[in-house]
Amino acid sequence: MTSVSTPKAGIITTLGAWLLAFIWISPLLFAFWAAFHPATGASSFDLFAPLTLENFSQVLAAAPFPRYFLNTFLLVSLILACQLVVCTLAAYAFVCFPFRGSGILFMLVLIQLMIMPEILLVENYRTLANLGLRDTILGMGLPYLASAFGIFLFRQTFKSIPKELEEAARLEGANAFQILMRVFVPLAKPTYIAFGLVTVSYHWNNFLWPLVVTNSVETRPTTVGLQVFATVEQGVDWARVTAATLLSVAPLLVAFILFQRQFVQSFMRAGIR
Amino acid sequence: MHIIKRNLLKLAATGLVLGVVGASQAFAQTKLDFYYPVQVGGPVTKVIDGYVAKFMAENPGIQVAPIYSGNYNDTTTKALTAAKAGTPPAIAVLLATDVFTLIDEDVVEPIDQFVKTDEDKAWLDGFMPAYLKSAQTEGHLWSVPFQRSTAVMYYNKQAFKDAGLDPENYPKTWDDMVAAGKAVTQKDASGNTTRWGIGIAGNVGSSQWMFGALAAQNGARLMNDEGTETYLTDPKVVEALQYWVDLSKKNGVHPQGIFEWGTAPADFLAGRVSMIWHTTGNLTNIRKNATFDFGVAPFPGHPNPASTLGGGNFYIFKDTSDEQKQAAFKLAKFLTSDEILADWAVQTGYVAPRDGAWKTQTLTDYTAEEPNALVALKQIPNAVPEFSTHENARTTKILNDALAAALTGNKTPEKALADAQTEIDKILKQYR
């Protein structure tokens, strides 16, 4: 009996998974469809509508996308590099060098997880204005250079690494920094990849803060540049919006497809879903 | 103490900068940040850059940085954030309806205090009174109209003809509109409607605008000039909402639930809806993409036709130097000159808020070619300002939610508006 019902259940699960996957990916599929068709075709779903690349050329002509990409790339790399260093060191200290008040300090870090960055918009802006860092990529990244989420995640990972490995390294004569670099960081690699993906996609998509703090083409990321196509007042020109959206997510999408296996495995091991 | 110190530092820094600039140039440059939103299609940022370049060529002492800052909401957030941090833009284009918010936050200067010479006064007198009205409160004029719009009715002449109606005879009253709607509505064999009569956008952010027009057509108003009172329980206001709800519920000429502003033009162009209420800013888009004969009509009345005005004004900010404020005023005057407004209207579809602009060569040529553009102009004297009160973001949201509740059938119009009025009263009490 069970031998009959199990394949059936399996089929249903598979079908359900495909259905959910289809629902999940359908906006992206629509974006692909609309971006390659003329504006009139986008709303009527005419299967024989002519294919066109005109939307892309219009979008590229309307905004300096190469510059925006460079800015986004610089911003995301800056944030990722600093977060990795700061969070690693902080998590290492929390795990291996307990000091008086470290418990409370860690609690404070956790509390920060609960504060939406938007609440701090005015304060952060004021600080940046006083530092003279308005309209710079460094200023845009500054509030995000440390990440409470990263500290928390790395701390949990470091804690799960057996003490024996650390002690063995110490017996071999490794100092604190060498233990970190040779033992902890390599063993936490899946967590690093998973965290990197989360933080890159978050900051790739971030909109409000970059919009508020930047003024010029030289510093603005793609998300802010993209907004110019959302012509709310006249109704939405889906063809151009989707073309611009595809352009701005393309690098992430390509990277994800290329490194898909590694990403999925990292997520499984790091326990973020 | 802290503030004095900071100001001293700033003073020293300014001195230093001025010194350096002064050494390299014969005159000191006044620098302006100018925030503006983009709400419509087309190369708007390039057009603005062009105007600003022209302004700077005429005023070599002033250097303007035009800063595109998202849509209206984004621009308001950005400008308020910058103002709160002590580094406001000198001038910004923000919603006309934000006037109370900006006054309450104490970040803008009234514009009329800059008007001194006869030439300034003549410039101010050139604006259409209907457009100035929303900026006048507490005995001052707080902003000047720039990218203003008004809503009109686009109708499908072909659909009218198919239904045996005279395509030149557009609906002039509420009853006309229902009758025309019934005539043009089409159903397929299984009873599904394939073509609706009319679509009025009821989504958040648009419904308060459309509803303002409906209320005005019924001879009611939604709020007072001081922005401290709303009149949502007025029977005339309730009747207006009842009419809107009945368009789909009783008469079956309007799509059920909430009709979306963003997709309304696409629905109209695809022939799925025969009449839409939409902004004049859509004329170019519809003209370019319509595959059928269409008309532009003023709004109907019950009995008196009325529309609402929307769009953005120039605000001059506090906390900048006097030179910057003067320069900002000069820029506002330049960008609202007849010539620029006429060009702006042709490039974007906004309605030029000055009579003089409509008499320029640019606009007379345009209206000769596209007489539909004149419909908006004729309608302006009958138009009322958009819903605007103190704490505007909150009150508008309450009104939006009430309209949505009535349109989706969750509440009766009467109950929805009464609930909204109670909630708004709580918020506005402190301003009375």
From TrEMBL, chain A:
Keywords: Cell membrane, Membrane, Transmembrane, Transmembrane helix, Transport. CDD domains: TM_PBP2 (cd06261). InterPro entries: MetI-like (IPR000515), MetI-like_sf (IPR035906). The chain crosses the membrane at residues 12-36, 73-97, 104-122, 137-158, 179-204, 238-259. Residues 69-259 form the ABC transmembrane type-1 domain. SUPFAM superfamilies: MetI-like. Its main location: membrane. It holds the Pfam family BPD_transp_1. It comes from the Bacteria. It is found in: Cell membrane. The keyword Transport applies. It is a multi-pass membrane protein. The keyword S-adenosyl-L-methionine does not apply. Belongs to the binding-protein-dependent transport system permease family. This is Sn-glycerol 3-phosphate transport system permease protein. It comes from Neorhizobium huautlense.
UniProtKB/TrEMBL annotation, chain B:
Keywords: Periplasm, Signal. CDD domains: PBP2_UgpB (cd14748). Its main location: periplasm. Pfam families: SBP_bac_8 (PF13416). Residues 1-28 form the signal peptide. It is found in: Periplasm. SUPFAM superfamilies: Periplasmic binding protein-like II (SSF53850). The keyword Cell wall biogenesis/degradation does not apply. Belongs to the bacterial solute-binding protein 1 family. This is Sn-glycerol 3-phosphate transport system substrate-binding protein. The lineage of its organism: Bacteria, Pseudomonadati, Pseudomonadota, Alphaproteobacteria, Hyphomicrobiales.
